[in-house]
């Protein structure tokens, strides 16, 4: 995500969309809230307190409440404190951090594309791949393995330690 | 205000507690891994090498390899 400071500067300079109070006005209908993403408000778990409050256009009742907030907070009732919180923030921490089922979609798409890629490569194997090089044919690989066993490669814990030289077969 | 019976959360010493938990855990984990490696990997390997080379006859081995025909300079 673009850094918050830079993003705020871009928006404040009016780089994206109008900053007027009434963004949409036709036949007397006015829209008094700026729609996202033209507001500066975005809270997430790693950035829980954005610079601007959630509600910037307040009606008379809300403005009165804001005036009351300037006094002693012990005078505020519980409902008023909740209302002030809701003005400042869109969601509580519990709401903001709620889990979602997005991971199922993500994993489903990942597996789907795995499968699709597998089908593509299968088709390529059938119709496009050239002949195997001579060193990968079965006869050559058998002769190669016999030579490795004759050289007794890794006789302590590795390949030649699994071969029974008397009976000429793999150890059981 | 409605008073609820929540416990007062831990207010200080958070880093110290975290550090202690992780330092003790690190010691135990690393010593455990080292001990596991020694007894599951290192000792069996030493024993395997000792068993192979206790009665190892290098000349006999060489004759077998020569007979199999892998050398260019000793046929």
UniProtKB/TrEMBL annotation, chain A:
The keyword Transmembrane applies. GO terms for cellular component: mitochondrial inner membrane; mitochondrial intermembrane space; respiratory chain complex IV. It is a single-pass membrane protein. It comes from the Eukaryota. Pathway: Energy metabolism; oxidative phosphorylation. Keywords: Membrane, Mitochondrion, Mitochondrion inner membrane, Transmembrane, Transmembrane helix. The chain crosses the membrane at residues 105-123. It is found in: Mitochondrion inner membrane. GO terms for biological process: mitochondrial electron transport, cytochrome c to oxygen. PANTHER family: CYTOCHROME C OXIDASE SUBUNIT 4 ISOFORM 2, MITOCHONDRIAL, CYTOCHROME C OXIDASE SUBUNIT IV. Component of the cytochrome c oxidase (complex IV, CIV), a multisubunit enzyme composed of 14 subunits. Belongs to the cytochrome c oxidase IV family. Component of the cytochrome c oxidase, the last enzyme in the mitochondrial electron transport chain which drives oxidative phosphorylation. This is Cytochrome c oxidase subunit 4. It comes from Prolemur simus. The gene is COX4I2.
UniProtKB/TrEMBL annotation, chain B:
GO terms for biological process: mitochondrial electron transport, cytochrome c to oxygen. Pfam families: COX6C. It comes from the Eukaryota. CDD domains: CcO_VIc (cd22901). Keywords: Membrane, Mitochondrion, Mitochondrion inner membrane, Transmembrane, Transmembrane helix. GO terms for cellular component: mitochondrial inner membrane; respiratory chain complex IV. Its main location: mitochondrion. The keyword DNA repair does not apply. It is a single-pass membrane protein. Pathway: Energy metabolism; oxidative phosphorylation. The keyword Transmembrane helix applies. The chain crosses the membrane at residues 14-37. Component of the cytochrome c oxidase, the last enzyme in the mitochondrial electron transport chain which drives oxidative phosphorylation. The respiratory chain contains 3 multisubunit complexes succinate dehydrogenase (complex II, CII), ubiquinol-cytochrome c oxidoreductase (cytochrome b-c1 complex, complex III, CIII) and cytochrome c oxidase (complex IV, CIV), that cooperate to transfer electrons derived from NADH and succinate to molecular oxygen, creating an electrochemical gradient over the inner membrane that drives transmembrane transport and the ATP synthase. Belongs to the cytochrome c oxidase subunit 6c family. Component of the cytochrome c oxidase (complex IV, CIV), a multisubunit enzyme composed of 14 subunits. The complex is composed of a catalytic core of 3 subunits MT-CO1, MT-CO2 and MT-CO3, encoded in the mitochondrial DNA, and 11 supernumerary subunits COX4I, COX5A, COX5B, COX6A, COX6B, COX6C, COX7A, COX7B, COX7C, COX8 and NDUFA4, which are encoded in the nuclear genome. This is Cytochrome c oxidase subunit 6C. It comes from Prolemur simus.
């Amino acid at each position: 995500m673009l850094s918050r400071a830079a993003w705020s500067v871009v928006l404040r300079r009016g780089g994206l969309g109008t900053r007027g109070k009434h963004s949409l006005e036709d036949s007397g209908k006015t829209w008094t809230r700026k729609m996202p993403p033209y507001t500066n408000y975005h809270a997430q778990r790693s950035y829980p307190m954005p610079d601007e409050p959630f509600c910037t256009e307040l009606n008379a009742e809300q403005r009165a409440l804001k005036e009351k907030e300037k006094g002693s907070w012990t005078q505020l009732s519980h409902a008023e404190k909740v209302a002030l919180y809701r003005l400042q923030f869109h969601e509580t921490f519990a709401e903001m951090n709620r889990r979602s089922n997005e991971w199922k979609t993500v994993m489903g798409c990942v597996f789907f594309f795995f499968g699709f890629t597998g089908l593509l490569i299968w088709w390529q194997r059938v119709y496009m791949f050239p002949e195997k090089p001579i060193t990968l044919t079965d006869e050559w690989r058998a002769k190669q393995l016999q030579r490795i066993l004759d050289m007794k490669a890794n006789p302590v814990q590795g390949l030649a330690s699994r071969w029974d030289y008397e009976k000429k077969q793999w150890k059981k | 205000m409605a008073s609820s019976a929540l416990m007062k959360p831990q207010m200080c010493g958070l880093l110290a507690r975290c550090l202690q938990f992780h330092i003790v855990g690190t010691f135990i984990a690393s010593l455990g891994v080292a001990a596991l490696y020694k007894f599951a990997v290192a000792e069996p390997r030493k024993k395997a090498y000792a068993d192979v080379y206790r009665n190892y006859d290098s000349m006999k081995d060489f004759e077998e390899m020569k007979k199999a025909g892998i050398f260019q300079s000793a046929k």
